[in-house]
Amino acid sequence: MPDLNVGGQAVIEGVMMRSKDKVATAVRKPNGEIVVKTDPYISFTKRYKILGLPILRGIVSFVEMLIIGIKTLNFSADIAMKELEKEENSAKGKSSEDKPPRSNNLMLGLSAVFAVVVGVFIFFFLPLAISQFAGVNREAVGFNLVAGAIRLTMFLIYVWALSLFGEFRRIFEYHGAEHKSIYCYEMGDELIPERAACHTRFHPRCGTSFILIVALFAIATYAISDTLYAIWTGDAPTLLTRFGIHFSLLPLVAGGSYELLKLSGKTRDNKITKILIKPGLWLQRLTTKEPSPEQLEVGLASLKAAIGMEQSVTVSDHSNVP
User: Fold this and answer.
1) Which residues is 16 bridged to in the sheet?
2) In this structure, what DSSP letter does residue 102 have?
3) Most distant CA pair in the chain: distance in Å?
4) Helix axes 207-233, 140-163, angle to 10 degrees
5) pLDDT tens for each residue of 261-304
6) Which terminal Cβ of the chain has fewer Cβ within 10 Å, N or C?
7) CB-CB contact of 2 with 188 (8 Å)
8) CA distances, 165 to each of 9, 160, 169, 295 (Å)
9) Which residues on adjacent β-strands are paired with residue 38?
């Protein structure tokens, strides 16, 4: 089995794969052509030893994942927009020049900020508010169990609702293609769609499993922080105080959860680990769908570029990921 750790994510009509020194994104155009873009990338946890320490590396990896994810989504959206413009120009009888895809970094940044703010409100503040108004704020463990259950339920409803829309279903199919491609590689199998199709679409190192681990780790962390606050002040924290404390502890929760996810990936053959990761694998029934051979071909093209088996085709003048 190869010792190269590879991860990725689904993008619009494609897959992004990340290896130890590259980020590759493969996107299928409407005409059937697969466009692959590769950028060199060395994680900050490898560049600076201090950032590679446990917990810290999880925080850094989470931030890197967000930045790379947004940039690769933007690249795939640019490809889709370029093809749409070509079709519109062709219908109007205009010439279709092969211009680089247009990107609006300002709009991308504003959209990302807006998405984060909405996400924090819905999945972070709202569960705290509901739990507070439900009158369970006096007991730290009980409060955080209720808030965690509400948060997880809201997330499950959100993912289920997304799966009802056709465009999001295709992204979930590419998510399945990403997992099958990685499993095919990890098992040392031949990197062709026929072989990748034989592997499971459920992977223990998936970000979906990470979300569940975060939810459980957050309950424990926030229960401890609320208990310490009550001991220190003699009273339970108010809603805004609790929100401030919990929000400030998010980096610790992300870092600790990353370590647990990393451990589960290394010990996934252990009986106890198999039991612990089961909920995450079940959740992937929502976040992944069975991919087509064509989607597997895209996932494998991205994987091969990330591990250096194939050269990519640079189709834009986008700057490299950080």
Assistant:
1) 9, 25
2) P
3) 75
4) 150
5) 788 777 777 888 778 778 888 889 999 999 999 999 999 999 99
6) N
7) yes
8) 19, 10, 6, 18
9) 24
